[in-house]
User: Which sequence fits this backbone?
């Protein structure tokens, strides 16, 4: 079975981290029990130079739960760089990786579908929101403008997809060849050209 790493970039997430850890440490054993991932699958928190107690919590959770690991960056490098650091670290230790933000506004239930699609031969599975009806008018409008602007600049993106995705190790190996300074994963991952699919979900309701 394939070893899964769930990579979670964190910046000042002391309020959310206990809830995030509780949920993710439920998801991984569930997928292990269903024999969809290897027993040594794990969570990798990437602390992006947090100024609160995020790192102390990560260390605490690691001591309490063997499936929780942490990567502490020297300073704040930004979400995309922190996520990239976690991805490249996971490449050395796992067969597949799922990235998700610490606020868990992306529904973790679709992770099982992502893994299933990987087993069907897809190297990339994009987590895609079904719709934005629950978003404010401003957020829906700015989101639509974002995708239109990206398309106008010739940037290939997946509509209603942020940074919730599964990618295989061989995708990560190809991605590691990029030498971009200003990293924009939503535009870079589609460029690698591996078989891909989409997993659709509703926006999860979370209270930080």
Assistant:
């Amino acid at each position: 079975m394939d070893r899964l790493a769930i990579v979670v970039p964190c910046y000042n997430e002391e309020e959310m981290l206990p809830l995030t850890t509780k949920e993710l440490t439920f998801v991984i054993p569930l997928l292990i029990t269903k024999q969809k991932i290897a027993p040594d699958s794990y969570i990798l928190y990437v602390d992006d130079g947090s100024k609160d107690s995020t790192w102390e919590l990560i260390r605490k959770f690691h001591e309490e739960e063997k499936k929780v690991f942490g990567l502490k960056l020297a300073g704040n490098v930004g979400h995309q760089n922190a996520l990239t650091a976690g991805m490249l670290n996971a490449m050395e230790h796992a067969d597949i990786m799922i990235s998700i933000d610490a606020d868990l506004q992306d529904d973790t239930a679709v992770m099982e579908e992502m893994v299933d699609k990987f087993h069907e031969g897809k190297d990339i599975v994009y987590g895609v929101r079904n719709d934005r009806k629950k978003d404010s008018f401003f957020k829906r409008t700015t989101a639509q403008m974002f995708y239109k602007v990206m398309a106008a600049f010739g940037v290939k993106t997946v509509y209603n997809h942020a940074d919730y995705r599964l990618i295989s190790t061989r995708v990560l190996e190809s991605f590691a060849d990029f030498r971009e300074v200003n990293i924009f994963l939503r535009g870079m991952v589609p460029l690698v050209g591996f078989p891909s699919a989409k997993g659709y979900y509703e926006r999860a309701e979370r209270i930080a």
User: Anything to note?
Assistant: The beta strands are 4-10, 42-47, 68-72, 96-99, 124-129, 165-168, 196-201. Residues 136-141, 146-150 have pLDDT under 50 and may be disordered.
